[in-house]
Amino acid sequence: MAYRNLEIGNRGAVRTITVNRPDKLNALNRDTLNELTLAFTQAAQDDAIRVVVLTGAGEKAFVAGADISEMRNFTPIQAQAFSRSGQRLMSTIERLGKPVIARIPGFALGGGMELAMACHLRVASEKARFGQPEINLGLIPGFGGTQRLLRLAGRTAALELCLTGIPIPAERAYVLGIVNQVVAADALDDAVATLAERLAAAAPLAASGILDAILQGGEAAIDQGLEFETQGFALAFATDDMREGTSAFLEKRQAEFKGR
Ligand code: COA
Fold it and tell me: Which part of the chain is CATH 3.90.226.10?
């Protein structure tokens, strides 16, 4: 289907979803949130797609937050629905069952930082800036930022970023464990493509098991998390891919995984 605020492209098993409102620094209005939820749901359902890359159009921003001009007129009830729809999108991404990489060329602020944090891996340009500036608008983060930043970077950084509203450079986000890689602006596409191709060649059911164990198991008590891991490990022995991976190792050849 055609999207008004997104561009969708495929390269092999890698789908790229681009938020395409560069004149508004890719700010998230309600339509864009709905389109993103649909686009991710479609990517989840398409067996040919093994990895999703999420990015923003232009060089200046990944996403500069929720759309302030739309949001400022919300009633509290509309604000509640907006927050829930943002949180639903973030959960859809986090639980997609396939790896999602955020490609971050520039500003990832407010809802943009929350969107990046819902992805599984983050690759940033050295020009990128990360922040939760909602407090400057008299607001608090509403798309899961207080919770995901806390879990990714700990209480010290979460309180600093949310209370001061001051954005941090990509290098500091790397030190805090918020991003996986920081690269020169002109190396961003190659770094994302290399990572995406590696993940696209990996065993999809094993990738899905790892995502489940780390993301869902990680929210449980350790004994439950370990049991989660055991179940995922055992399930992998039911797959052709496990037989292919172990055979390929013993036969000293490259494995070819089919997702079965
Ligand atoms: N919502 C709506 N519009 C936004 C936006 C947002 N979150 N972020 C940027 N824009 C719009 C600007 O209003 C401007 O539109 P205009 O040309 O029609 O006036 C356009 O995008 C370009 O932004 P501008 O502010 O002119 O760019 P800049 O380089 O001077 O500043 C930022 C860049 C990111 C520092 C600045 O845009 C900003 O602070 N944005 C808001 C960030 C924020 O608070 N996000 C959290 C929202 S909860």
Answer: 6-200
Q: Is the CB of 66 under 6 A from ligand 1?
A: yes
Q: Which CATH class is domain 203-250?
A: mainly alpha
Query: Is 67 close to ligand 1, i.e. is its CB under 6 Å away?
Result: yes
Q: Which of 96, 94, 104, 95 is nearest to 50 (CA)?
A: 96
Q: Which of 24, 63, 115 to mutate to test the pocket of ligand 1 (most atoms within 8 A of CB)?
A: 24
Name which of 12, 40, 149 is nearest 98 in CA terms. 40
Q: What is the pLDDT of residues 61-117, one digit of tens each?
A: 999 999 999 999 999 999 999 999 999 999 999 999 999 999 999 999 999 999 999
* Cα–Cα separations (whole angstroms), residue 24 to 62, 69, 106, 191, 206: 11, 10, 13, 26, 39
Spatial distance between the Cα atoms of 56 and 67, rounded to a whole number of angstroms: 14
CATH architecture assigned to 6-200: Alpha-Beta Complex (3.90)
Round to whole Å and give the CA distance between 105 and 45. 28
Q: Is 115 in the pocket of ligand 1 (CB under 6 A)?
A: no
What's the confidence (pLDDT) of residue 94? 97
Whole-number Å distance, alpha carbon 113 to ligand 1 midpoint, is 14
Across the chain, the runs of DSSP E, i.e. the strands, are: 6-11, 14-19, 51-56, 61-63, 100-104, 107-109, 121-125, 129-131, 168-169, 181-183
Distance from Cα 114 to the centre of ligand 1, integer Å: 16
Residue of 150, 177, 175, 174 lying closest to 161 (CA atoms): 150
